[in-house]
Amino acid sequence: MHIFLILIGVIIIFWLLGRGFTNSSLRINKLQYDDAKYLVMLTAKVAKSDGAVSKDEANYISLLLDDICLKLGNRDVRGKLKDIYLYYKDTQISAYAIAKEYRQRLGFSQNIWINRVVFFMNLAYIDGEFNSDEREILREICDGFTINKSIVEELFSHFEAEFKNLSKEHSIDPYEILEVSKDASFEEIKASHRRLSRQYHPDFMMDKSDDIISQATKKMQQINEAYEILKNKFNK
């Protein structure tokens, strides 16, 4: 447990792409860009692991691309990264092969690779499900990163324990979750959903504690569930 808490504490975007430039006109640091590129490749494999990309996952990925561009200081790379995502979402290249090449080319420490895995776990579970196909892809990534198997099992065990009871929690008023009034228009609801998604997106919690990050992932699930309830109410 303590190992998991320590490792998750540095979480998700340890790679902080915001260094090495002063404005968007400068050439992007190759290491930073390669890191982002491989992250997007594996994000695509995880998102499509169960055969389809859910709306929640698509929203998560869109926010990720926005954040990467912000940290790189160059909006122009978003199109390139999106093309990479679309290609690797459907390619037959395995997650294991991508992860292995990622590890060989960037040579990070094991703790950083573990942080990447926790990021992908959050992505896999953002729609409230953690199925066998997603587990298989995540294990391929762990193997490609050559993460110690005992640590892998601990990661899976504690991650699933953290979220297994989420669906049993009492429902909260969707208007309350989305921080809008009962008479809010759908456009107001949509805008609030986008704002809260950016606020609680786990990728943006890089300088927070492990507990705050876990709560952020749960909050994202509640936000998405509330939004779906109101979308159905408005027949959207």
Describe it for me?
The chain has 236 residues and is mostly helical. The protein has eleven helices and no strands. It has helices spanning 2-8, 30-47, 55-72, 77-90, 95-106, 110-125, 132-144, 149-163, 174-177, 186-200, 210-233. The chain starts with a helix and ends with a helix.
Content-based structural category: mainly alpha
Overall residue-averaged pLDDT value: 77
Strand content: under 5%
> How many angstroms does the end-to-end distance come to?
43 Å
What's the tally of helices? 11
- Major beta sheet summary: none
Relevant terms:
mainly alpha; 236 residues; globular; 66% helix; 11 helices
Please render the helix and strand layout as text.
Blueprint lengths: L1 H7 L21 H18 L7 H18 L4 H14 L4 H12 L3 H16 L6 H13 L4 H15 L10 H4 L8 H15 L9 H24 L3
How would you sum up this structure in a few lines?
It is built from 11 helices and no strands.
